[in-house]
Specification:
Chain A has 20 helices and four strands. By secondary structure, chain A is mainly α. Chain A is globular. Chain B has three domains: 275 residues, no CATH class; 123 residues, Rossmann fold (3-Layer(aba) Sandwich); 132 residues, Calcium-transporting ATPase, cytoplasmic domain N. The chains are: A mainly alpha, B alpha+beta.
Chain lengths: 567, 675
């Protein structure tokens, strides 16, 4: 570990903290449906959308209405992308004449992008036409992110409202978030990336003559525009197979820093918005503090493991940290930080080969996702996942102050506990269940590249990443088979659905409740004690479930490595 | 019920039936109500059936020990519940005996006939004479009698029950010791107070409270999560080229699922109700006890709660040239025959201040207080001394209203009111002498109690019929947060509704019929046992001692119940960390020997590690039974310090204790060669 490495991490957090409140304020205007300066230019566009589609943005929906409209929207857009991918060969902007995607692959990819997972079994530049990239995939990068933020808004309203039957209008939230938040930032962001060297063109490929005189075809396309939303919306689906390790996606160390910042910035802002929405910004800072502590632990372990390197190689006379699978222009600190940021935040982007990380370095991203990606998390998804844990933490420990548990003025009762437990239990069920199936049946066992615990980690990582809607790949796993495409597709869909629907039901149930004003007798949900408690509950309830699987995967891998056996 | 002394928990007369009952409770129909323990019992049964199957390379002795400890885990749970129920059972038996012997003299068409109490229906009239047991709950419609209610309250001093007014309710099983009353029955058979008490102390009809239901859901959820975690291990082990014996997987599952809190959950609830019963408060539901812990606002009647019921004379204030001694003498004479506490305090004050010793003059005529004149006094020889409220005295002596003395008197009485007192004017032969300052005496220590309540975030509101001036003075002296003066029952109801609209939970106590709507509206309504039947029906708790101050303790007991539940849940969940560290390395070390470094407790062998974890998991249940039954130590303090304290003890304690416990058990097992 180096001073520069730690300075990078400190600068990263410092910039984010400075951006938290401004971002939160902006989100607050959208949350409340207030006018922003952008309304001058974009207001007519918004109203035009409503008029065209016959939506009354002021007509609020119950949680059921919100959920049903959201599900219909997701289903329709998923089918649309499926069709675009299947029919790719017949559609325009397909210069290389790429064939249509097979049924299992299209099924997997459509769900993958619609659920904000962006798991990619294929190699982007080799399989997708520019039209597929833009119309089939990038559209979901915006919409799945906007859906996530809308859902967070809905849950916040549940906490903030008193005896209300509604939690907002899905279409209004979706439109406003896309129009006033994601699009404007992405336009500027894409221009900055272009300035940094990222291509933005409709030309799909150029042919270059290399120094040796050989002909090389270099894939190009609208990369910058996709790259911007890939990060900001915590999607992670790369234009290229190399993702953010590819020099056209992530040319330099400052674009790397910018990309990491853009992954976290909305997530940080949403914690502030939560506090603002429930009438006490300290509530938001408390959540953010817990997230940052968990994040820093992850960074320290991952960075430490990577910087320490591989003892087997040390004995062979190769000293230093683990540089296998890393881009030299980023180095160890930026690669370790990037991996922790992306897996904490449900952004499937990678700028290094996770498969080549040391076992403990690879354990951190895995564990981050197994916690439910609540450490900052995906835009929207992170905070609502976190609030599910907060509900359970309040319920377990809140009784200890001698009152029925309550959180930010809302009593936590049987219904909320039931729904929160349901949402949290689905994660291990699909991750561990899927991994169990894949580690027994021949079609599953055919996947991993390596044997032993490392191969097990590859399978475990694939299911964890899918269910957590992260989408990052450990690599090493041959996932483009009907078995994995189908199973992982279902896993992604269940992983999203079974968190969202119970979460919205909680929002509805909370909104209908009275508000209990805080008093000296109320359970304190700000301050160090609460932060510590939250971390404890997340680690015990979210993490312990996965200890057996981690023990047989990365932990066994690590311990074998120390004993000189590599997999 | 008279048993207010805390009995030791582990006396033989409670233990023996509890041990018997703990086996009876293994009945699957009963066990299934507690899903976590049901799963434990199923696993124990499965392993019992698998005892003879070999092939897993484990010794029979190890497996038998494991099976025994699993069954003990289940039994410890049923034992905790049985023990908690035990105390109530004995009380229920004696109450039942009382009930069985009840007969009634039913009044029908002007005649009486002797029937069993169980035949009485609501609305019928019964005659109860001296020495009779009252056959059913009801309301006195005619007569007045003194009644011994020891069977219910444990208090043997008789109480007066009379037709009309706020002391008309009578309870089945209490005994009339003088006079005769006619009672209209208000409860059908099986619905009476006695029936409810029997059901309550026995815990037979115990329904899970809302909070208990929510907690059970969480525990079931955790059980499912851990079933998934353990159920997928065989597939993972298969990948790693090995197999984990069912016995070992079962051990992991049982140690991970929250058996500790699940085993103690119903015992905590029963014990909480039992504490209330022994405190002579009957809650009609567990929900009411939980609500008590949540209370934000306490409505407290001034008289009897904040001030001692009786006002005390503290000063004589003379007017118009009368000396204080003259006034004192007149007041003394007027009060000699007055047996009320106020009257006696006037006599005492006159004696203390002026050393006046006067017997009742011979031939004196005592003028009693009547609702019409509102003045009392004494007439002897040619002298007439009157005392009463200022307005009443002025009215009784026409023409005095315009005198200078009257003006002065009014000024003085205003001052007295502002100081929180009640003025009692005295007149002699139509001449105004002055006023006696009757002071409301605030109970000792009550100010500190209110301070504690404030720390706990509970607001106190004093309810009084006094005028606002007096009320403000007393409120300031007692340190309540707010007061409601010249209160009508409608005001009370309105105040409760207003607080509830703001999301607050309100507790109050009351006794009169006109309190009934407010008692019913309040989240916690404690009715005084001496009150009317209507009040007792409306409240969700009945205080058998009729002591309104107890409302504060009731809140404390509610909080203690919730705290005990929370503390043991936290402890139980925190325990899992250590158990993982005991079993995971033991389970997987055959697959990857490197995993032995996870054996941070340095347990002797894989078998002893598994056995130690299971034994700890079982033994922690009886170890925590006393805590579950007595409740965690409760001190009034704010939520912040309370959480810090409990989190330290039960959270951190729950994390650390099993590491130590499992290690110690492992040492014993290895020393004894058990594994």
């Amino acid at each position: 570990m180096t001073i520069q490495g730690w300075l990078l991490i400190a600068a990263f957090l410092g910039i984010l903290l400075a951006l938290t409140k401004p971002m939160g304020l902006w989100l607050h205007a959208l949350y409340e449906g207030r006018r922003t300066p952008l309304h001058l230019a974009l207001g007519p566009v918004e109203r035009g959308f409503y008029r065209l589609s016959g939506i009354d943005p002021d007509r609020e929906q119950s949680w059921r209405g919100y959920a049903i409209h959201m599900l219909i929207f997701s289903a329709v857009t998923t089918l649309f992308t499926y069709a675009v991918l299947r029919l790719q060969a017949f559609l325009p902007l397909n210069t290389p004449g790429l064939a249509g995607i097979g049924p299992d692959g299209a099924f997997n990819t459509a769900i993958s992008f619609a659920t904000n997972t962006n798991w990619q079994w294929y190699s982007g530049e080799a399989a997708m036409s520019n039209l597929s990239q833009m119309l089939g995939l990038a559209i979901h990068n915006f919409l799945s992110a906007a859906v996530g933020i809308s859902l967070a808004f809905a849950l916040f309203r549940g906490f903030a409202r008193r005896e209300s039957g509604t939690i907002g209008n899905f279409w209004a939230d979706l439109t406003r978030v896309t129009l006033y938040l994601l699009l404007p930032i992405c336009v500027v962001y894409a221009l900055v990336l272009i300035a940094g060297g990222v291509p933005q063109t409709l030309t799909q490929q150029v042919t270059a003559t290399t120094l040796e005189g050989a002909q090389q075809t270099i894939a190009l396309g609208p990369v910058a525009s996709q790259e911007a939303i890939k990060m900001l919306g915590t999607n992670g689906g790369g234009f290229y197979n190399g993702n953010s390790a590819h020099p056209f996606e992530n040319p330099s160390d400052w674009t790397n820093l910018l990309q990491m910042l853009s992954i976290f910035t909305i997530g940080f802002g949403l914690t502030w918005l939560f506090g603002k929405a429930v009438g006490n910004t300290r509530q938001g800072w408390a959540i953010l503090s817990a997230m940052i502590v968990l994040f820093l632990v992850g960074v320290t372990v991952a960075y430490g493991a990577e910087a320490t390197g591989n003892p087997v190689l040390h004995q062979l006379g190769v000293p230093g940290g683990n540089m296998e699978g890393k881009e030299v222009r980023f180095g160890i600190a930026a690669s370790a930080l990037f991996s922790v940021v992306t897996t904490a935040a449900s952004c499937g982007a990678v700028n290094a080969m996770l498969d080549s990380f040391t076992p403990l370095g690879g354990l951190v991203p895995l564990f981050n996702m197994q916690l439910g990606e609540v450490v900052v998390g995906g835009v929207g998804a992170g905070i609502y996942g976190f609030l599910l844990f907060a509900i359970l933490a309040v319920f377990v420990a809140g009784l200890m102050v001698g009152r029925t548990p309550e959180y930010v003025g809302k009593k936590i009762e049987a219904r909320e506990v039931k729904l929160a437990v349901l949402a949290i239990a689905v994660l291990p069920l699909i991750i561990l269940g899927g991994t169990a199936v894949a580690s027994v049946v021949p079609a599953g066992l055919a996947g991993p590249l390596n044997n032993g615990p490392h191969g097990f980690s590859e399978i475990l990582y694939a299911f964890t990443s899918s269910v957590g809607n992260n989408g990052s790949a450990f690599a090493g796993l041959t996932a483009g088979t009907p078995f994995y495409n189908g199973l992982l597709g279902v896993a992604m869909w269940l992983g999203r659905l079974f968190v969202i629907v119970p979460m919205l039901a909680i929002a509805g149930s909370l909104a209908a409740k009275k508000h209990t004003p805080a008093s000296a007798g109320s359970f304190p949900t700000t301050g160090g004690l609460w932060i510590g408690l939250l971390i404890g509950i997340i680690l015990i309830l979210g993490g312990l479930t996965f200890l057996p699987s981690l023990a047989l995967g990365p932990i066994a891998d690590h311990l074998s490595m120390i004993r000189g056996q590599l997999f | 019920m008279a048993d207010t002394q805390a009995k030791s928990l582990f006396t033989a007369d409670l233990m023996v039936p509890a041990i018997k009952a703990s086996f009876l409770k293994l009945d699957p129909r009963q066990l299934v109500r507690n899903p976590v323990m049901f799963v434990t019992a199923c696993v124990a049964l499965l392993l019992t059936l698998l005892l003879n199957s070999g092939g897993d390379g484990l010794s029979g002795g190890f497996k038998i020990q494991l099976v025994i400890w699993l069954w003990l885990t289940v039994l410890f749970g049923t034992f905790a519940e049985a023990l908690a129920e035990g105390r109530g059972k004995a009380q229920a038996a004696s109450l039942r005996a009382t009930k069985a012997e009840l007969t009634a003299k039913r009044l029908k068409n002007g005649r009486t006939d002797q029937v069993a109490a169980s035949q009485l229906r609501a609305g019928e009239l019964v005659l109860v004479g001296t020495g009779d047991l009252i056959p059913a709950d009801g309301e006195v419609v005619e007569g007045v009698a003194s009644v011994n209610e020891a069977a219910i309250t444990g208090e043997s001093a008789p109480v007066i029950r009379e037709a009309g007014g706020d002391r008309s309710a009578v309870t089945a099983g209490t005994r009339v010791i003088s006079d005769q009353i006619t009672v209209r029955v208000t409860a059908d058979p099986g619905q009476g107070f006695l029936d409810r008490m029997i059901a309550l102390v026995e815990g037979a009809e115990r329904q899970k409270t809302p909070n208990e239901v929510a907690l059970t859901i969480l525990l079931v959820g955790l059980t499912i999560i851990f079933l998934i975690a353990v159920g997928t291990v065989p597939a993972f082990a298969h990948y790693a080229g090995g197999a984990i014996p069912v016995v070992v997987l079962s051990a992991l599952l049982i140690t991970l699922i929250p058996t500790t809190i699940a085993a103690l959950l119903s015992a905590i609830g029963i014990a909480g109700m039992d504490r209330l019963v022994r405190f002579n408060v009957l809650a009609k539901s567990g929900r009411a006890v939980e609500a008590a812990g949540d209370v934000d606002v306490l409505l407290l009647d001034k008289t009897g709660t904040i001030t001692i019921g009786d006002r005390q004379a503290s000063e004589f204030r003379a007017v118009g040239g009368t000396t204080e001694a003259e006034l004192a003498e007149a007041a003394l004479l007027a009060s000699l025959a007055d047996e009320t506490p106020e009257g006696r305090s006037i006599v005492a004050l006159a004696r203390d201040l002026f050393d006046l010793q006067r017997p009742l003059p011979t031939g004196a005529e005592v003028i009693p207080f009547t609702a019409q004149t509102r003045v009392s006094g004494i007439r002897f020889d040619t002298t007439l001394i009157q005392k009463g409220a200022v307005d009443s005295i002025l009215r009784a002596n026409p023409g005095t209203g315009e005198t200078a003395a009257a003006t002065e008197l009014r000024r003085i009485t205003d001052e007295i009111a502002r100081a929180g007192g009640t003025p009692l004017a005295v007149a002699k032969d139509g001449r105004l002498l002055g006023a006696t300052f009757l002071k409301d005496v605030v109970k000792a220590g009550i100010r500190e109690r209110f301070g504690e309540l404030r720390q706990m975030g509970i607001r106190t509101v004093m309810i009084t019929g006094d005028n606002p001036l007096t009320a403000a003075a007393i409120a300031a002296e007692a340190g309540v947060d707010d007061f409601l003066a010249q209160t009508t029952p409608e005001d009370k109801l309105a105040l409760i509704r207003q607080e509830q609209a703001g999301g607050k939970l309100v507790a109050m106590c009351g006794d009169g019929t006109n309190d009934a709507p407010a008692l019913a509206q309040a989240d916690v309504g404690v009715a005084m046992n001496t009150g009317t039947q209507a009040a007792r029906e409306a409240g969700n708790m009945v205080d058998l001692d009729s002591d309104p101050t107890k409302l504060i303790e009731v809140v404390g007991l509610g909080k203690q119940l919730l705290m005990t539940r929370g503390a043991l849940t936290t402890f139980s969940v925190a325990n899992d960390v250590a158990k993982y560290f005991a079993i995971i390395p033991a389970m997987f070390v055959v697959l990857y020997p490197g995993l032995s470094v996870l054996n941070v407790m340095a347990l002797g062998s894989p078998n002893s590690a598994i056995l130690s974890a299971i034994i700890f998991n079982a033994l922690i249940i009886p170890a925590l039974v006393p805590l579950a039954l007595k409740g965690v130590a409760y001190r009034p303090m704010g939520a912040g310090p309370l959480l810090r304290r409990n989190l330290l003890i039960y959270g951190l304690g729950g994390l650390v204790a099993p590491f130590i416990g499992i290690k110690l058990i492992d040492l014993v097992i290895n020393a004894a060669g058990l594994a």
